[in-house]
Write a structure and sequence with these properties.
Blueprint: E1 2-7, E2 10-12, E3 18-26, E4 30-39, E5 46-51, E6 57-59, E7 67-72, E8 77-82, E9 91-103, E10 106-113, E11 117-121
Parallel strand pairs: 2-11
Antiparallel strand pairs: 1-3, 3-8, 4-5, 4-9, 5-6, 7-8, 9-10, 9-11
């Protein structure tokens, strides 16, 4: 079993900042890609950013230059720094973690989702 605990959401004004974190724990062997997604009311879930174990990052065009994803491999934690927030950034933010398990000499990858944390940008 894998548990993901998210924290850091809340209310911010336009132009403000928030920092999200997501800590993974459980009986996995290692973690591959970690990422953040978001889902606004009435909209589909969309990718925000991902980061590989080596630190390579990928961002949605809508957040490039404003959001920064990072990870601490020793703590199995992924972070998302949200700067210059806009009204349209309001959504539930969910972390996604690709965990790697070994069984009988074979590795398998299983993705897990966090419970989501609300980010509300309002004047």
């Amino acid at each position: 079993q894998v548990q993901l605990v998210e924290s850091g959401g809340g209310l911010a004004q336009p132009g403000g900042s928030l920092r999200l974190s997501c800590a993974a724990s459980g009986s996995f062997a290692s973690i591959n890609t970690m990422g953040w997604y978001r889902q606004a009311p009435g909209k589909q879930r969309e990718l925000v950013a991902t980061v590989t174990p080596g630190g390579s990052t990928n961002y949605a065009n809508s957040v490039k230059g404003r959001f920064t994803i990072s990870r601490d491999n020793a703590k199995n934690t992924v972070y998302l720094q949200l700067n210059s927030l806009k009204l349209e950034d309001t959504a539930v933010y969910l972390c996604n973690v690709d965990t790697i398990f070994w069984r009988l000499g074979i590795s398998t990858t299983t993705a897990y989702w966090g419970q989501g944390t609300q980010v509300t940008v309002s004047a």
